[in-house]
């Protein structure tokens, strides 16, 4: 993995994306050349010279559509089976719709119907071949990393289990464990590496051909080999602590094994003026575009909410925002009018009987969230950020969930990393899992991550996998 604007990006996914960009650009050029160009015609050659913008537009539209369909959330077990085609065809249909709108607004970019059909056919074949080669090569050992765990206790066991999962983005081969005397042994004894007297950590790494050491020791007092770890790092061997390993592999920050110093001295948590200005600009631009595109849909939603039970169209509810300040969030009403007739706040449950029929549809498609655009314009919320919770629940969660208040260091959002990665939550345990995603966002927030979250939100809406 490597980082773009603090966000961890898989090298495998990046490589696949790069190859498919080349495939799509090539398909656009070949499709137009075969369909339209007579290579001996100077005018036609001149047309091809100015075709780059159209080819880029085609590539961006298809890559965006494939991302929205989740085609870059790879599953090596799935490979090229049925779900691949179930995602590829809708991706191309979405891309075609985007291009049709673009070509209507800018006719000079248009391919022509015949060239467009040929380009799409070539692109589909090219992407299939690229993915077939990619999934075949993913079985090769050169894509695996050999890692060693320093530690043999509960934390090392948890890290190794994570590494052994058939990861979508990274494959590991575990060379073994080097336990420390201060910890109870919780791993398979056959995986413990034999350390002879006089063996240094560097020599063990060389002996077992290890490229990375994961330091998974909770108690680092007494006998912790800090000098040997430094020697390994100076020899070009990657040394990673457990918190960073979890952050990298799960895009979460695990609070149960987190050292406060890691948060204090680690990178991220950018709240500079430049980031704040870019964030606010992004919020206003996105909110304006979404409002313009969805205003007719919002009018229909208001009509259906009113028709279903003749109750209020909107509801406002107190939520906790940035720096713990409260504000009132606005949504389309998705529950019965008497949803909390007992007077006590309740967690919303999955398949909650209080949700109306149309309200259930709005929740799955996130239509009920659209009135929160008003909160964004007022500056109480961002378009992307942690989900705002009610003060009643915040008071409870602060008591039982470590670092819960950290999420209040940024504005809450209409959509967020936790919503697109974890989805539904209705308990303190769910709140803990979502907090770990929220902490990742707060630590690594950037314009790049905001754009990724918006693309993932579109996927959630399309597949109706919202809360």
TrEMBL record:
Cellular compartments annotated: Membrane
Cross-referenced InterPro entries: Bact_transf (IPR003362), EPS_sugar_tfrase (IPR017475), Sugar_tfrase_EpsB_2 (IPR017464)
Ranges for domain Bacterial sugar transferase: 279-462
Transmembrane segments: 12-31, 51-72, 84-105, 111-134, 284-305
Protein name: TIGR03013 family PEP-CTERM/XrtA system glycosyltransferase
Keyword terms, alphabetized: Membrane, Transferase, Transmembrane, Transmembrane helix
Protein family membership: Belongs to the bacterial sugar transferase family.
Keyword Membrane found: yes
Membrane topology: Multi-pass membrane protein
């Amino acid at each position: 993995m490597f980082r773009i604007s603090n966000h961890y990006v898989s090298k495998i996914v990046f490589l696949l994306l790069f190859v498919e960009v080349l495939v799509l650009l090539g398909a656009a050029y070949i499709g137009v050349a075969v369909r339209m160009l007579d290579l001996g015609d100077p005018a036609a050659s001149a047309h091809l010279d100015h075709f780059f913008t159209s080819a880029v537009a085609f590539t961006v539209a298809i890559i965006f559509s494939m991302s929205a369909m989740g085609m870059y959330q790879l599953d090596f077990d799935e490979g090229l089976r049925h779900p691949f085609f179930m995602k590829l065809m809708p991706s191309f249909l979405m891309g075609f719709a985007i291009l049709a709108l673009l070509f209507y607004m800018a006719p000079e970019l248009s391919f022509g119907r015949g060239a467009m059909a040929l380009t799409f056919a070539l692109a589909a074949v090219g992407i299939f071949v690229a993915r077939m080669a990619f999934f075949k090569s993913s079985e090769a050992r050169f894509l695996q990393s050999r890692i060693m765990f320093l530690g043999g206790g509960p934390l090392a066991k948890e890290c190794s289990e994570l590494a052994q999962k058939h990861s979508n983005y990274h494959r590991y081969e575990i060379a073994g464990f080097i336990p420390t005397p201060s910890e109870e042994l919780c791993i398979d004894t056959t995986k413990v590496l034999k350390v002879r007297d006089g063996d240094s950590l560097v020599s063990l790494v060389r002996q077992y051909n290890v490229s990375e050491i994961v330091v998974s020791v909770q108690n680092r007092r007494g006998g912790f080999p800090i000098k040997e770890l430094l020697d390994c790092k100076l020899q070009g061997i990657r040394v990673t602590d457990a918190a960073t390993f979890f952050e990298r592999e799960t895009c979460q920050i695990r609070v149960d094994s987190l050292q406060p110093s890691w948060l204090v001295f680690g990178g991220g948590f950018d709240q500079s003026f430049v980031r704040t200005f870019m964030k606010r600009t992004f919020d206003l631009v996105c909110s304006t575009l979404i409002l313009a595109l969805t205003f007719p849909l919002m009018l229909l939603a208001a009509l259906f909410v009113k028709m279903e039970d003749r109750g209020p169209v909107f509801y406002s509810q107190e939520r906790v925002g940035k720096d713990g300040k409260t504000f009132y969030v606005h949504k389309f009403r998705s529950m019965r009018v008497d949803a909390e007739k007992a007077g006590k706040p309740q967690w919303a449950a999955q398949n909650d009987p209080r949700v109306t029929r149309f309200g259930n549809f709005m929740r799955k498609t996130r239509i009920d969230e659209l009135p929160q655009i008003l909160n964004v314009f007022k500056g109480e919320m961002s378009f992307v950020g942690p989900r705002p919770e009610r003060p009643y629940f915040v008071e409870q969660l602060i008591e039982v969930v470590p670092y819960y208040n950290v999420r209040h260091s940024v504005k809450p959002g209409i959509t967020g990393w936790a919503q697109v990665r974890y989805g539904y939550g209705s308990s303190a345990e769910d709140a803990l899992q979502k907090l770990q995603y929220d902490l990742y966002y707060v630590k690594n927030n950037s314009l790049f991550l905001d754009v990724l979250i918006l693309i993932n939100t579109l996927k959630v809406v399309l597949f109706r996998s919202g809360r």
